[in-house]
Amino acid sequence: MATHTKASCTGSTLLQPLSEIINLPLDQVNFVACQVFALLMAVWFRIYLHPSKTSPFIRHVVATLLGFYLALFCFGWYSLHFLVQSGLSYSVIVFAGLEHMHKYCFIVTMGYLILCQITRVYVFDYGMYSADFTGPMMVITQKITSLAFEIHDGLTKRESQLTPSQKYLAISRMPSLLEYLSYNCNFMGILAGPTCSYNDYMAFIEGTCYQPRHQEHTNGKENGKYKQSEPSPKNEVISKLCTCAISLAVYLSLYKLLPVERAIDDDFVNSTPFHLQVVYLYLAMLALRPKYYFVWTLADAINNAAGFGFNGYNKDGSPRWDLISNLRILNIELATSFKVFLDNWNIQTALWLKRICYERCPINPTAATFMLSAMWHGVYPGYYLTFASGAAMTMAARAIRHNIRPYFMVSDSCKCIYDVITWAWTQVAISYIVVPFVVLAVGPSLKFYKSWYFSLHILCVLVTMALPMKSRRWQAKELQDSLQKDKDNLQDNRIEHSSTDNNCNQKDKAT
């Protein structure tokens, strides 16, 4: 069972007095302070180091040096692991053969991350919940492995062998060491991400994401092109900072009142009716999620403040700043299916898992994806219990959706009833399977599941056995729909991100 110890801070002690005043661990104070500093630097970076005023080289250097400074302030000498991991992986990318470079890079990068996680958990501080140096390494791991696969796609495969999204992400030249370090360790994403594609990051550094864009169905002149001034992220940043403030206030107000650990307390289990235990578990998880909302929304705001994250325009002409957003809060809280919840939670990680595992694994990609997610998160046993349960829950949810949902699509009222039922089921199921993710250890996790009589696990097995899985015809139709969706998204991305007249002319020819 995990023994909770007082987390020690390996970074700067400059803010120790502030930590004592507000009664929060120093490493968490350092993290928030560095993110606030990064937000201010992002505004300065966008205004004074704008692509129109300085070269990409200067922007790369400044972004990288600021990133290393923040890492040193938060994690001290442990931040050297970021350089070691990046250096080893870059050596593999440069010196290994292109045919198998992506596989070797994946093994080296994930291996180094897991080694650091093992030593941190089982050697230094088992059960530490506070910020630690392996958190940024998890994001760097995503970036390095994504880069390796994108280089492999761009330099070794023909376009006919790639999916539409792989064509868009493919990299046609080897990045320099400076570009590589800037992509991995820039100050905007060094502490909390989010992950982004290398091509999108380079477009931001070079300023090409703001060039005139080609528009289909335009009646104007200049071959469908129009002049568009660079949109300001001010309103978006203010909105996300307000979301951060609300999320932090909710978390600090509720997380001590509704601890998840109470759900496995013997007195609570013995004295509380089961239906109230279900309600309490949902409320406890509801109180826990704002912590992630705060961290990820603040990280998104930092990138937007620097001018990164622009994703074209809405139909009403308003700019979109969700290119690298990591969550959609309303979609999470109102999710009516397991898939919808996962698609809107930690979005960039889900895309990473899809692109390097789910789309490429030839055998049981669902199970492989959940296993990779568990390995990436860390070595606590609770992670593996959560993701193993998640795989089973996903299979059962697919079977229910395929076999049961069509009967409720006959009218709006029936569909509304179905949505309410599936919302309640989704929220309870998510709360049920993530308990091990929170308590971490095997003993408390199994104790909780035993208090629920493993009910949802048993239900998933029965559903999977009783209901037929998707037929080959249905799978083929879903695959076709998915490819069409990827194609549509690719066209949208090309419309929004195209930066040269040549691309515009090619699009006109295709039309």
From TrEMBL:
Pfam assignment, any one: MBOAT
Gene Ontology CC: one annotated term: endoplasmic reticulum membrane
Xref: InterPro entries: LPLAT_7/PORCN-like, MBOAT_fam
Membrane topology note: Multi-pass membrane protein
Keyword Transmembrane helix: yes
GO molecular function: acyltransferase activity
Record's protein name: Membrane bound O-acyltransferase domain containing 2a
Organism per entry: Monopterus albus
